[in-house]
Amino acid sequence: ADHAQLNMATKELVAWGNVLVREGEDVVECERLEVNLDNQLGKIYKAKLFLKDQNFHIIGREVEKLGENRYRVRDGSFTTCDAKRPPWKFTMKELDVTLKESGTAKEPVFSIEDIPVLYFPVGYFPLRTERQTGFLIPRVGYSKKYGPEIKNAFFWAIDKDMDSTLYLDWLGDRGFKEGLEYRYAITRDMNGRANFYFIDDPVIDKNRYAFFFKHQQKLPYEFYLKGNINHVSDRLYTQDFSEDLPEAATRIDSWSRGQLRSNLYGGKNWDQFSFLTEGAFFNDLTKESNAETIQKLPQISFHAHPQSLFKTPFFYDLVTSYTHFWRVKGVEAHRGDLFPRISYPVRLFNVLKLESNIGLRETLYRPYNDPTHELNQWKSRETFEAGMEMSNEFYRVYDATTFSKISNLYKVAKWMHTIEPTVGYRYSPRIRQSNLPLFDEVDRIPYTSQFTYGITQRIVGKPEKVGISSGPYEYGKLNVFQSYSLGDPFIDSKGKERDFSNIKGELWWNFSPYISAQWDAELNPYRWDFDIWNALVTVQDRRTDTFQAQYRYTRDSTNEINFYTRFRTIKPLYVSGSIRYNILEKMRVENVYSAEYQAQCWTLNLAIQDKNRSPDGSQKRELKFELYFNLLGIGSYGLKPAEWLVSPTGRR
């Protein structure tokens, strides 16, 4: 300060003229300061305060310190913007502030560029960096189909290891919709989340609800337990309220989703063994009733991974399982399946890798509830399976100088190109099994006498960082293979029997830090045309601008193209969008557009979601608008579009 005066008897300190006080990274500037050094109480005049933790800039004609962390500001303002002329600020007659807790303002006015925009009789501002109980800022949107939407939420910080959010939304013509989300992390080894939603929907005159639960924990003796429960009241719920579904990849496919799967499973993994018990429940969304849907309650399995047989050159492995197939209406059954195998790996002439194996399979059934009584008795099936696979690996190693530009880009010391041809044969005899119940693929083992041949190529680089070598990284892989059957023929997409299978190919390409590609296809050798063709290309620059193009094709069932992009125009403005088009139905599925402005102390995003009608006409076209903005240190308004603007791969 320019001047300071201290009374040693009363410990009263007065300073005036360009007073500057620093405490850690917090800064106070004022014209005059009056403080008692014993109790730290006092006043400052014409003050400017900067609080680093919340990035708060507070200005006041008079600031009174009422306690260790409590202040009262009169005729003041505050903002979290660093600019001398802040883009936004709150001005108020009086503000009571408790640092790292909250602030209460009398008659605050919200201004943008010094222009008053909103007036409140009273205002409450959170100043804590950790969770705290309170109302969240409402979300407002508009659906052309159902009208305006107002989404309200109350957050409850129950304890340090659990919290909850309660929702009460107004969805236009649909009325009120309630929701509850509960999260917990009781220990490092146990956490989960539960969501429940309910609406008395006047549009279809029906009570509708959904429940989603996810849990995982470690148990004593290295056992584990995990659960993922998903249930909806009706088959159209996932289409009407896709935002309720917990996974992003689930939401984007909600209009074409055929079933919801729930499971609860647990077990233990050893070095050479694994044990798993699971209950799986399927909710068929393609049918009005779920009574005939087969459920696996429970399914218990034990695996012995390949390991030496009594220290001989032979190896053994084992797969055994018990499954109870249950449903409300229809044939049910108990099934036990035992499949041990013995294999013999050897290297011929120190060049060829050869592995042969043989296994015996026993399957037992105890069906019941068959109305014809033909299946209500013990049944069994015995068979065996034998196979052989021969392969070799050719490779060549290249120094970094051979591909100097690429090597410098990746800091790779050496490159290796491998070619791995493979040929194999598998045999399983023809057996009588038409008298057995049919629940899944295990119940019908085809007569197999099949050759499989193919080739795999890899590009592997060994990067080097500051003279310390790290492990190799696979930059590219191409896999092409085909099978020829002397047993039961293959069935193509047209239902025709074929001896040769489709030629299947897979490609992963990560040969640039900015470009990656994934591709898989199946070529029909009889029509010389593709039955399956899927491709995804991702382009990204150093600013993380992203463009993705995806094509999905399966003959007679799927033919669609999807695009996703996000890029920065001017420095603070980001534009993003996604387009999904169904080529098979010749109709647009969904378009989402978003523009986001990111400033130092605020963010504004406007998004438009245009869902087309479903191909069967059960869902009409819907146009939704969402507005999101965030004030740094204060809170956000609306649903950030990144939560529902999803790229073709399902990534957020």
Structure in a nutshell:
The chain has 652 residues and is mainly β.
Beta-strand percentage range: over 45%
Q: What's the alpha carbon Rg, rounded to whole Å? A: 33 Å
Low-confidence stretches: 248-252, 640-652
How many helix segments? 3
Oligomer: single chain
Folded structure, characterized:
The protein is an all-beta fold and 652 residues long. 2% of the residues lie in helices and 64% in strands. It contains three helices and 42 strands. The strands form three sheets. It has a 26-stranded antiparallel barrel. Strands 1, 2, 3, 4, 5, 6, 7, 8, 9, 10 and 11 form an eleven-stranded antiparallel sheet that branches. It has a two-stranded antiparallel sheet with strand order 31-32. The protein is elongated and about 100 Å long. The protein starts with a strand and ends in a 15-residue tail after the last strand. The model is unreliable at 248-252 and 640-652 (pLDDT under 50).
List the helices and strands and how they pair.
Elements: E1 3-7, E2 12-23, E3 26-36, E4 42-51, E5 56-65, E6 70-79, E7 88-98, E8 102-106, E9 109-112, E10 115-119, E11 122-126, E12 134-143, E13 147-159, E14 162-171, E15 176-187, E16 190-201, E17 206-218, E18 224-232, H1 237-240, H2 248-252, E19 259-269, E20 273-284, E21 295-308, E22 315-326, E23 332-348, E24 352-368, E25 379-391, E26 394-399, H3 404-410, E27 412-428, E28 448-465, E29 468-469, E30 473-485, E31 490-491, E32 497-498, E33 503-509, E34 515-524, E35 529-540, E36 546-554, E37 558-568, E38 573-582, E39 587-598, E40 602-611, E41 622-631, E42 635-637
Antiparallel strand pairs: 1-2, 2-3, 3-4, 4-5, 5-6, 6-7, 7-8, 7-9, 8-11, 9-10, 12-13, 12-41, 13-14, 14-15, 15-16, 16-17, 17-18, 18-19, 19-20, 20-21, 21-22, 22-23, 23-24, 24-25, 25-27, 26-27, 27-28, 28-29, 28-30, 30-33, 31-32, 33-34, 34-35, 35-36, 36-37, 37-38, 38-39, 39-40, 40-41, 41-42
